[in-house]
Amino acid sequence: MAIKIRCVDCKKKISIDEAFAGGVCRCPYCTAIVYVPDESSTKKRKGRPETPRRRPKAPASRPEFPTPRPTAPATVDPNAGTALDAPAAVDPNAGTAIDAPAAVDPNAGTAIDAPVAVDPNAGTAIDAPVTVDPNAGTAIDIPAAVEEPKPLKTADQIEADKALAVAHGQANIPMATPVKVQGIVAIVLAVLLVGMIGGMVFLGVHLTNPPPVLDVPEDYGNTALTTRDFPAVAGTIKVTTPVVYCIDTSRPMAEVFEPAGQIVIASIKSLKGGKFNVILLGEDDDKTLSAQPIASDKAGIAKAQAFITLELCGAAEQARGLQAALDMNAKTVVLLARDSAMGAKSVAEGAFKDKSVPLHTVILAGASKGLSEMAELTGGKSRELTVSDLAEQAKRAAEQLKNK
Length: 404
Fold this sequence. Notes:
This protein is α/β, with parallel strands linked by helices. It folds into 2 domains: 1-53 and 109-179, no CATH class; 215-403, von Willebrand factor, type A domain (Rossmann fold). The protein has helices spanning 155-167, 181-208, 257-270, 298-307, 318-327, 344-355, 369-378, 387-403; strands spanning 2-6, 13-17, 24-26, 33-35, 177-178, 232-233, 237-238, 243-248, 275-281, 287-288, 294-295, 332-337, 359-364, 382-385. The strands form 4 sheets. Strands 8, 9, 10, 11, 12, 13 and 14 form a 7-stranded mixed sheet that branches. Helix 3 (257-270) links the parallel strand 8 (243-248) and strand 9 (275-281). Helix 6 (344-355) packs parallel to helix 7.
């Protein structure tokens, strides 16, 4: 297991094997010697040296107090007694350095008791003036503006490194390995950047190409029986003119035929002048509003309202009516029925796919897998409306018309 530490010189993270815990290692970046802490020890060992540096600073100790000069023997009158009862009037020149008069020779004074006005050339490195010659100063008093290049290791430094390794119980000073965290972080940032760019591209495409109107959710004013501001059928299914509406008139359509006619009229009004046609699908033959599509103006809408009347039959022939709609060069065909009839799926899978005409199916009073599959085969849409849905939507459409 590796121990991760930080170099005291270059501040970069390095890694060393835990076998060297409590010893030293060399930084792979700046070659500085770094102390490896012993993480298993709860207390710091006594006498543990601090993290060694390649070039330790010179100590700035204060010079010791100079030894006072020996005092000259006093000229005592032998006849006047011993030195203990010598008179106070002693010769000033015979005094010691302690009781010497204040006027001392500047050249004889030490660096401590020297007068303030000292010759700059006689001062030590401690009391040297601020403007020191960079070439004469030590590593301590080198001006900050001078950047000293790191010298190559000398033989003494090599021996010192070996001695330091031996002092920590090592044969040599191992080289630590760089911690590759920076590379991992760079990769993570790159992935995030790519993700952000991809998200921005997606948003740009989504904003410049809004979803089709087909996905507009249904609300109170958007029902299958109300007119939209764009060509649509059943509220949300977009259509392209000319449109041909095929309404099944078989007996099961009795209870939903009227809502089916209202859906068609609402869709015709949304065409805004575009052409349309209506085919009532019967058992033996079909009834067609016009031989060719007509304009969805007031006259065309009135004609369609008068045409859509219920005449029930046994079973409508859907395949025949769908083929007739294709023969009118319709761009969109809408089939309103409760279920698919025999042969209708083959027309949708064949002729509709060949001409690339979408077939939209409006399934009334329930669900029909056959009608859903027909729409899917042609690239069309399918919508299911139950009897209760149709009743509720008819009520909403009446209220909306009343409030206008």
